[in-house]
Amino acid sequence: MGRRRRGSEVDPASDGTADAERRERQSGLRRALRSQFPERSRDNLLPVLHFLQHEHGYLPEWALQVVGWHLRVPASEVYGAATSYTELHLEPPKPRDIVVCTGLACWQSGSEELLNAVLQQPDPDEASNVTTTACAFMCGLAPAVRINGSWHGRVHAERLTSIIENAPL
């Protein structure tokens, strides 16, 4: 048996394990990647992951397989890059996205209380995804919270509750 060159693995869209819909999605992604990222280089890994995040709102497993195949990068490296950046997500987004800044200025201005308040609120339908960011670069408006993509500054617990209740899903 001869040595296989790196990147010569079987195309995941044609390996026979995926159902028809999945194969079609993978084929469509392969076409898009060939069009937008014709240089099949490891240097394109982060741009491709950002492209996927923008297209799908998260990084589906099937898409990560195609990225590895397209860029000739091991799956472990693709997964490592995908999990190293807080703006990249492996799970589908929930209707409500809450991000509390825990940078020094926000922390000293009360973001710990905001985070605790958010985590203690009942979420019966589990429609909220609560995360933190090390710094939102909004120190002058500390503490800062992002609700569904919109940043709010100088937030206190009562105002936070109102913002969350009024945020569209």
The total count of helices amounts to 7
Query: Which class of secondary structure composition applies to the elements?
Result: alpha+beta
> Which word captures the global form?
elongated
The N- and C-terminal alpha carbons lie at a distance of: 56 Å
Q: Please tell me the overall pLDDT.
A: 87
Please outline the major beta sheet: 4 strands, mixed
SSE string, helices as H and strands as E: HHHHEHHEEEH
Strand order of the largest sheet: 2-1-3-4
Count of strand segments? 4
Low-confidence blocks of residues: 1-7
**Count of all domains:** 2
Helix fraction, binned, reads 40-55%
Gyration radius, to the nearest Å? 20 Å
Proportion of residues in β-strands = 5-15%
